């Protein structure tokens, strides 16, 4: 097994050894959907049902939580406690560390996405995405945009607390302003513009769209934006990789 | 005669961080197969020097050659051939010992000495234990094992016995000696003078980023002016000891005396003769040698008085 896969495998195992992160990653989103469902599921008007709108959105939100908390904050912790420094005088190259954590994050994210989807199917008659290949591709593009983005942003933090604070800020901002939880149409015009600056907005457009309406080829603009974010973030994350918090 | 092979060559090395000069004009060499100690108080520049040798930090001036390589420019090759035990680092808290050993072994091409190390360090019983559940001594063993999996030609140990109890420290020394006997050259920093004395073949003493002394512990100790005789007695008086020839000073604590002298043998004879004539009893008479600790204090004093 290559070093990347070995490290990814170990990191995934260790993730499951931490009960608290298992709860926040897998059960919290399901609980939120259940909560929103009990509030809104009967009152949504328009062509799409509650589940068709909210479950793809929360799968998008899960990309954000995975990238900022499962990856970013954890690596900031590794930086602070010297885990990364231990790698520094070995032949292990930084890109392999980033790649291993990306693989681990992808596995964990897909488990959480499947859980949400199954929950939606059982509770709210959600159906499989209309263009399933497109949805999968959209997920991959979103991951490639968000993981390096979060890895870069959290690497700027001085310590784990600061990384967690940055992560919470980004998460909350996107949670409320990207259309994931509240319909953008109900927001003031200014905030509607703000939402378009947030990368999660494009992820949600892409996921909702391919799930309910059209194949990914119809979403060239969103795909373009996300690929752009991805390219810049991959460059920044590997260029400014830091082994320790000095 | 076999020519001496230099594993490390440091020539006029300096390192500045902004205004502070952490390392000043440091020059020394490390020979193949020795345990080389770098000692000095906290903040003396030991870790900085080590990190320059490991290629983690760039030197501000001077030349450094490690295993014939330039540490920064040829870092990847260097990393394949050196092992490093950092000060106060951890591995993932929830990683088990055997997982860490497997992971680190996968970083290196070729066979590793994983199984030999497990046996040598007695790690068998801890293989399924998570790192967070190990005591300090066991954590040190594990990180030592991770640093030596690939049988590095050169092993850097930064304060390896920090926080260990005396027993664990002695065990660690034995392991370090075994690693040397298996062919590694070892560079170790410490601020425990006893460690330098008992473990190292040669010792460099660093203070304020400067090299103050470099020699074998034995020869360094021969320079110490603090040799003395020690004994216990209820009857001997302080003043009578001070009046003996060659005596520099006398320290008294309860019934224990330390008599410092220019000529220990002569002073010892005088003490015995005096006590014999006066019918006084002496107990636990010993010739004592100053430790590196004393030497260190001596250097610091010299520094302060100029």
TrEMBL record, chain A:
**InterPro entries to which the protein is assigned, alphabetical:** ABC-2_transporter (IPR052902), ABC2_TM (IPR013525), ABC2_TM_bact-type (IPR047817), ABC_2_transport (IPR000412)
Q: Which PROSITE patterns match?
A: ABC_TM2
| Residue spans crossing the bilayer | 21-41, 53-78, 98-124, 130-152, 164-184, 219-241
Keywords per UniProt: Cell membrane, Membrane, Transmembrane, Transmembrane helix, Transport
Which part of the chain is the ABC transmembrane type-2 domain?
A: 20-244
Q: Which GO terms describe its cellular component?
A: ATP-binding cassette (ABC) transporter complex
Membrane topology of the entry: Multi-pass membrane protein
Q: Looking at the keywords, is Membrane present?
A: yes
Record family assignment: Belongs to the ABC-2 integral membrane protein family.
Concerning PANTHER family, the annotation shows:
DOXORUBICIN RESISTANCE ABC TRANSPORTER PERMEASE PROTEIN DRRC-RELATED (PTHR43027), TRANSPORT PERMEASE PROTEIN (PTHR43027:SF2)
Name by which UniProt lists this protein: Transport permease protein
Question: What is the native source organism of this protein?
Answer: Halobacillus karajensis
Q: What lineage is on file?
A: Bacteria, Bacillati, Bacillota, Bacilli, Bacillales
From TrEMBL, chain B:
Which keywords annotate this record? Answer: ATP-binding, Cell membrane, Membrane, Nucleotide-binding, Translocase, Transport
Query: According to its UniProt record, where is this protein located?
Result: Cell membrane
Q: Does the keyword Nucleotide-binding apply?
A: yes
**Residue ranges annotated for the ABC transporter domain, each copy included:** 8-233
* InterPro entries in the cross-refs: AAA+_ATPase, ABC_transporter-like_ATP-bd, ABC_transporter-like_CS, ABC_transporter_ATP-binding, DrrA1/2-like_C, P-loop_NTPase
Q: Which GO terms describe its cellular component?
A: plasma membrane
Q: Which PROSITE patterns match?
A: ABC_TRANSPORTER_1 (PS00211), ABC_TRANSPORTER_2 (PS50893)
GO MF annotations, alphabetized: ATP binding; ATP hydrolysis activity
The similarity annotation says: Belongs to the ABC transporter superfamily.
Report the protein name in the record: ABC transporter ATP-binding protein YbhF
